[in-house]
Amino acid sequence: MDGKAQLVLSLQSIGAIKFGAYKLKSGIISPFYLDLRILVSYPRVLRETAQVMAELLATLKFDRLAAIPYAALPIGAALALEMNRPLIYPRREKKDYGTGHAVEGEYHAGETIVVIDDVITTGASKIEAIEPLMTAKLKVRDIVVLVDREQGGAKEIAKRGFNVHSVYRVTEMMEILREAGKVTESQQHDVLTFLAQNGAVS
């Protein structure tokens, strides 16, 4: 079993991939949920995640990593250690005290940044995070996520001139779990039906 397939099983084993009825930020009820914030409590799986994502990142050219708070901060830190690459992050809200920085960490205008996040759904949070980076005169071309929920986010980002790279699509993860006997045919069908009905699978 390769590293990508093993990571999916590891994520499922720690409860990062859940099945049931979950309300998303959009208000839609989803038959699955990706709780990747839990990675911070599982250093072995966090390391696995960084190793798999590092393989994808090795194909891109960039000066620094930029992790989107909050879910991607542990992933970004693990990647910085795995790849020995510097990390910065855009604040959700600019401080009105101290340095007042909108972007934390050391960087230099004109550098190329690759944005890191856990999941992409609509892409809205990615655009919000990119704005302070570009205001700081940093170049952003690529966004790397662990999972594309296949709900149109990658296409929306592409319309704005950015490239989205994902380690997995949800349909791929479901196939790995089905082949390993970790989900039922019914669960897989429910997920694929949901994606088909919510602008995902053609």
Going by CATH, the architecture would be 3-Layer(aba) Sandwich
**Helix proportion:** 25-40%
- Rough outline: globular
- The CATH topology turns out to be Rossmann fold
What is the top-level CATH class?
A: Alpha Beta
Q: What is the CA-based Rg, rounded?
A: 17 Å
Largest beta-sheet characterization: 6 strands, mixed
Strand order of the largest sheet: 5-4-3-6-7-8
Number of domains: 1
Q: What low-confidence regions span 5 or more consecutive residues with pLDDT below 50? A: none
Q: What is the N-to-C succession of helices and strands?
A: HEEHEHEEEHEHEHH
Structural class: alpha/beta
Indicate the mean pLDDT. Answer: 92
DSSP strand count: 8
Q: Figure out the total of helices.
A: 7
What does this structure look like?
- The two termini are 29 Å apart.
- This protein is an alpha/beta fold.
- It has helices spanning 3-13, 43-57, 72-83, 124-135, 153-159, 170-179, 185-197, and strands at residues 17-23, 29-34, 64-67, 87-90, 103-104, 112-120, 139-148, 163-169.
- The strands form two sheets. It has a six-stranded mixed beta sheet, sandwiched between helices. A two-stranded antiparallel ribbon has the order 1-2.
- Helix 1 (3-13) packs antiparallel against helix 2 (43-57) and helix 2 (43-57) crosses helix 3.
- It has a single domain (3-197), classed as Rossmann fold.
- The chain is 40% helix and 24% strand.
